[in-house]
Amino acid sequence: SKAALFDAENKVKITFSDVAGLDEAKEEIKEIVDFLKNPSKFTKLGGKIPKGALLVGPPGTGKTLLAKAVAGEAGVPFFSLSGSDFVEMFVGVGAARVRDLFKQAKEKAPCIVFIDEIDAIGRSRGRGQLPGANDERENTLNSLLVEMDGFATDSGVIILAATNRPDVLDSALLRPGRFDRQISIDKPDIVGREAIFKVHLKPIKLDPSVDPKKLSAQTPGFAGAEIANVCNEAALIAARRDKKAVDMQDFQDAIDRVIGGLEKKNKIISPEE
Ligand code: ATP
């Protein structure tokens, strides 16, 4: 297919205020915003700015959102690609794509490069599968390592990568000078869920019956992506019912629908890897 080589966003509008909960992660990642905004402040005493940080946590918890918010807060471009795009690529294409990405990133620095699902390229080499089947993935991983080593720490390119499987990553990726920092992004607790509900309730016309505290109590185990989904479903359900505002019953039905969807998904996806 003729998919774009990677995504590039020059003006990112997302900021930390769009990311609810995740207070510790935000605190840690703020450091990277400072590095991007004022690198010389940090390098003048001989320190080296980290090249990358790994965002570790389950799907839908806001890793992409947080990475974008770093770019938004620092006012720098955001380049992104997903590891899973590389899985079925022809020989040489993955490595070339990584090289192109870094070439452009260096030209646009300071900037953020975001690699979603890095485990799809970054699995430890020689692990599992038939011999030969992994060659292209390994080429891609090698070119990523070469690129990471090839730019200076003060080049202004900072790489954020997301994974929910840090345990399968090739240890070469985690060495100092590569992804030497890890930031954990956990599923929200009841307080975090309430904060996420408040963000996603904002654009919705609400009936006074709607109580974010009650909604967060009714959604244990939900990640931010599912909460966003609940809010959107509730608005659609209320519209179908010709209501003037979205009420608590609509939210209850939306929660049931999202739980139903999750159960179906868990049945289809096999528990292995
Ligand atoms: P994946 O690993 O599946 O790519 P992710 O951790 O990168 O997931 P995002 O893509 O950032 O998750 O989240 C999906 C959507 O869920 C976001 O665009 C946002 O609407 C909502 N969301 C997730 N987490 C949060 C949060 N902490 N605050 C506000 N919204 C959130």
UniProtKB/TrEMBL annotation:
ATP binds at residues 57-64. It is found in: Cell membrane; Membrane. Residues 49-189 form the AAA+ ATPase domain. Keywords: ATP-binding, Cell membrane, Hydrolase, Membrane, Metal-binding, Metalloprotease, Nucleotide-binding, Protease, Transmembrane, Transmembrane helix, Zinc. GO terms for biological process: protein catabolic process; proteolysis. The keyword Lyase does not apply. One of its GO terms (molecular function) is zinc ion binding. GO terms for cellular component: plasma membrane. Homohexamer. In the C-terminal section; belongs to the peptidase M41 family. Acts as a processive, ATP-dependent zinc metallopeptidase for both cytoplasmic and membrane proteins. Plays a role in the quality control of integral membrane proteins. This is ATP-dependent zinc metalloprotease FtsH. It comes from Pseudochryseolinea flava. The lineage of its organism: Bacteria, Pseudomonadati, Bacteroidota, Cytophagia, Cytophagales. The chain holds residues 185 to 457 of 685 of the full protein.
